[in-house]
Amino acid sequence: MSSRYEQLLSFEFPEFTQDYSARDTILYALGCGAGDGLPDHEDLQLVYERELTALPSMSVTLAYPGFWYRDLDPGLDFVRTVHASERFELDRPLPVEGAVAARPRIVAVYDKGPGRGALVVSRRDIVDRQSGERLGMVQQTAFCRGDGGLGGEMLAAPPPHVMPGRPADETVSAGVSKRAAAIYRLSGDHNPLHIDPDFAAEAGFQAPILHGLATYGHACRAIMRSRGLQAFMRMMDCRFTAPVYPGETLAIALWHDGPVTSFRATAGERVVLDNGVAEFA
User: Fold this and answer.
1) For residues 7 and 233, what is the distance between their CA atoms, to the nearest angstrom?
2) Which pLDDT tens digit goes with each residue over 163-199?
3) Degrees to nearest 5, angle at CA 162 with 161 and 168
4) CATH number of 4-280
5) Neighbour-count burial for 48-68, b at 16+ CB within 10 Å, e otherwise
6) Most exposed among 87, 99, 114, 240, judged by the fewest C-beta atoms under 10 Å?
7) Is there a contact between 190 and 225 (Cβ–Cβ < 8 Å)?
8) What's the Rg (C-alpha) of the chain?
């Protein structure tokens, strides 16, 4: 009989498809704080179809497999599974509308041992359904706290991006709307943790928390505004380290080194995104 480790690596996902429009692109940007700065021209480009530009981080919502740890029953303890990190790589600037498909796969499992959990890395290539051209890749790492001791070789996870040792080149303040989670969930993440106070209380939170990927989108928007919305961000990666509550203010520290921007986000005293890196072509 194969081990749970082998079963995970051979787990077969269905294909996910999505048609998205300029309206979806605008809705995603609103969930990431765009529009709060209107009539600023750069915010206008994110929410007005006349010169619409897609935030590159919207790629993480395309052909999204949802809460597959529970819905597809891969044998993981989904109740104790949390989002650990997210990465996307784009082959070209993201279109503001399209028809896409993706079939995720589990590409790595880093087993920490019995009682210590495991990191499960899933990846999906996003493909234009009409041309067959790949738009990019999205990689998600989950920390499965209840799934250590899966039976595979115990390997150390790759080290995270090393942050610069100097003070940040700039720090961007980004207010999180009290409606941010209610808006962001319309981009496909319907976990009740982000909308239902009773569910959030049962999970140990004082109120519904913001989606980690919405915090990720707020950081992407801050980086793009610093670099210019027409710049081509080809990659973005970071770890999720603490929750954010709608209504809080993010302080997003940026370090620019040629085509690379490192970033870290805090909410009050909490570091909420860490080891962040974005690369521009």
Assistant:
1) 35
2) 999 999 999 999 999 999 999 999 998 888 899 999 8
3) 110
4) 3.10.129.10
5) eeeebbbbbbbbbbbbbbeeb
6) 114
7) no
8) 18
